[in-house]
Amino acid sequence: MEFGKKMTRRQRLMATLEGRPVDRPAVSFYEIGSFKYNPDDPDEFNVHNDPSWRPLIRLAEEQTDIIRLIGAKPLNDNPAAANYLTAEKWQEGKSRYVKNTISICGRKMTELTRRDADTDTVWKLEHYLKDIDDLKAFVELPFEVFAYQYDCEKLLQFDKELGDAGIAAFDTADPVCRAADLFSMEDFTIFAMTEPQLFHRLLQKFADIIYPAVEDAAKRCPGRLWRIYGPEYASEPYLPPALFNDYVVNYDTQIIKTIQKYGGYARIHSHGRLKNILPLISKMGADGLDPIEPPMQGDVELEYVRENYGRNMVLFGNLEITDIENLEPSEFEKKVRAALEQGTAGSGRGFVLMPSASPYGRTISARTMTNYETMVRLVENWN
């Protein structure tokens, strides 16, 4: 990979996406920077207001190549949704609960989630679809019930706020992600393998929602980076590559082509095992891939991905969040150097140093902070 004259963070990211020379590898802290954390929000469920988060948020905002993500939002005053969906919210101690109910074909299907005050994640305690009759009823819902759109004005606002610090990008689930989220993981794999016709009906229902929303946003805001998440649900060990082809390639290819039609860049997000699905991801024509987890979390080295697929795809990775939080700084530095060496080797399209996820607890340890600082220090001196 070639390195050239000094760039702004925005210029560096766009050159990386376009496969042009950069002054140094880009670095992203993923969710830290992708989302606008507010350490001044006093809400007891805001883990980022702990003082230990402030230096890390500041480091991300001031010294990383920010990719600010914009997700979809449900349509306002959607009468179709009101006809079928109800929601209840309550708090017990330091946990917040949401119970959603879908009523269709004489059935009531419920979903229950919990959010704890000291962890920035939502636990799904109950899933909507629990048996074949639930699935058959669900596919009878009008697709308009879950219709949504992308806020292009918000994306442009983020772009203006970022200035030269980075870029704003769209974030979209794919059909298999939306489908898998309806089941427990064990039920998802069983139904996906034993009820392919019915499962395709479910995927097409979500495709009918996703495709027009992506088309509209890609047309209104052309030339943007998109992150497409969900393909990992159809990867090994959950489903075999043949079903990845059926449930991901057959649906996500249209999303990718739509984004590219308007000059955008489509980045596939898929945790875990990649080796046997890399040819299929390449077949879709994706512009990027993350987080390319190293063994043992994944099953392929970054060097292999760079050599075999890096000419056409920007590679994002390949650091593990568990290493950031647990490794001694001297050991973590070795991991960062290895990722940079492998990610920038040869004449590939580009590389962004990035972890697989971000901390979700209330406290950032001194070790974790030092390891994040190591990422920035090494990329700034890499040539």
The biggest beta sheet reads:
8 strands, parallel
The CATH topology assignment of the largest domain is TIM Barrel
Q: List the secondary-structure elements in sequence, H or E.
A: HEHHEEHEEEEHEHEHHHEHEHEHEHHEH
Q: What is the 3D shape?
A: globular
CATH classification, class level of the largest domain: Alpha Beta
- CATH architecture verdict of the largest domain: Alpha-Beta Barrel
How large is the share of residues in beta strands? 15-25%
Mean pLDDT score = 96
Number of helical segments with 4 or more residues: 15
- Can you tell me the number of structural domains? 2
Low-confidence stretches: none
> How many strand elements?
14
Radius of gyration: 21 Å
Distance between the termini: 9 Å
Helix coverage percent of residues? 40-55%
Secondary-structure class: alpha/beta
Strand order within the widest sheet? 1-14-13-12-11-10-9-2
